[in-house]
């Protein structure tokens, strides 16, 4: 059965490696993890780090686009309803 580690645990181990207070072998034996696994986590961490500081986070951009689309459709609906109300008032002879 494979062991499964939480992202928090992986982050903690990688930060220990990056501090360079202990060797990778010491960290691996302290946590009961193979050194190659720690190297993979460290490499993945270092590859993903620049994305944290990217200006356009994809999730944020997607949420923003959905929000703007919702606002646009709501304004269109308000416009249609205003036009219908004006037409109904005109046809029924109601004065504002």
Characteristic key phrases:
2 domains, transposase activity, 4 helices, 96 residues, Homeodomain-like_sf, mainly alpha, Arc Repressor Mutant, subunit A
Q: Mean of the pLDDT scores? A: 89
Number of helices: 4
CATH topology of the largest domain: Arc Repressor Mutant, subunit A
Structural class: mainly alpha
Helix and strand sequence: HHHH
Computed over alpha carbons, the radius of gyration is 29 Å
Q: Sheet with the most strands? A: none
Q: N-to-C terminal Cα separation, in Å?
A: 76 Å
Top CATH class of the largest domain: Mainly Alpha
The global form is rod-shaped
Q: Unreliable stretches, pLDDT < 50, 5 or more residues?
A: none
* Beta-strand percent range: under 5%
CATH 2nd-level architecture of the largest domain: Orthogonal Bundle
Oligomer: single chain
Helix content: over 70%
Organism: Heyndrickxia sporothermodurans
InterPro entries: Homeodomain-like_sf, Transposase_8, WH-like_DNA-bd_sf
Coiled coil: 57-84
GO molecular function: DNA binding; transposase activity
């Amino acid at each position: 059965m494979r062991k499964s580690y939480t992202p928090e645990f992986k982050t903690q181990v990688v930060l220990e490696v990056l501090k360079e207070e202990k060797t990778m072998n010491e960290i691996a034996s302290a946590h009961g993890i193979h050194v190659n696994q720690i190297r993979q986590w460290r490499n993945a961490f270092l590859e993903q780090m620049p994305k944290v500081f990217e200006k356009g986070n994809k999730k944020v951009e997607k949420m923003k686009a959905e929000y703007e689309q919702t606002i646009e459709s709501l304004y269109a609906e308000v416009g249609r309803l205003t036009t219908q109300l004006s037409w109904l008032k005109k046809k029924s002879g109601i004065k504002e």
